[in-house]
Amino acid sequence: MNEQAGKDKRRRSYSSGARIAKERMAREVPMDAEALAAIEASDIVVVPGIYDHVDLVLEALEMPFTRVEATNLGAVELRPEQLLVVNCPGQLASRDALRIRDFVAAGGSLFTTDWALRHVLEPAFPGTLEYNEHPTADDVVRVEIREADNPFLRGVIDPGEDPLWWLEASSYPIRVLDPSVEVLLSSTELEGKYGEAPVAVLFRHGQGEVFHMISHYFLQRTELREGRHRTSSLEYAMSKGVAPSPEMADLTTGEVESAASSSRLFANTAARHKRRIAERLKDGGTDA
User: Fold this and answer.
1) Is residue 61 part of a domain?
2) CB 274 within 8 A of CB 35
3) CA-based nearest residue to 261, from 181, 144, 167, 104
4) Is 170 contained in some domain?
5) What is the pLDDT of residues 103-144, one digit of tens each?
6) Whole-structure pTM value
7) Residue 253 in contact with residue 231, Cβ under 8 Å?
8) Which domain holds residue 205?
């Protein structure tokens, strides 16, 4: 497959996966769907990265956002009602990392990926998480849910599914230092190969919260290990109660499942943030 054809398949996988995620959210958690629909561009600030592209997932979800280059972040006023997304590598000025710490303490939400562990989280939140200095190879590992009833994980991985997560070459394994950090997704394979199991973690700081994932959120490829992964995505969509679309015709379950899982995870994150801020304002400024 040539590069352009591969990009087109990824675009269609995410378009299909995002539609499945949104339709399921509307059916399963209507209050989250309402919160998602109420999001405005000023609610989400995205710092683009060289290596990761969370913004492409947001575009697939048709979620508005404001793009701010890393070099311009210092000139932007971060407000506690916002969700800040910092893509890998997350190389920011040291003063901006400290501003982000204060932003979260005041009630803001932070979403980071891969190398932002070293460049943002370690300086901003020392003693919480760290890179274990054992970079991954270009690899794919199975992921498992650690907290099935966590609102971040609603509809992300259903019983009987075994989503695979791509590890970009030189991804940074997450070592948890603070026992209050919640490990939402983990991987036994990741731990066996690279020393740490966490794939996605959450921690609170002040009135806000931080969500971090290893590797890139916008997946560049999917590995099809099992027969189920190779089945038609049309069957996958119907199994989720969603009518398949023509753009899914040549896509596999593995391709669309991975995109749907990551789309739903971010949709859950954004909806939770929007609802948390609304509740906080309703309560007169105290966090819910």
Assistant:
1) yes
2) yes
3) 144
4) yes
5) 999 999 999 999 999 999 999 999 999 999 999 998 888 888
6) 0.90
7) yes
8) 3-282
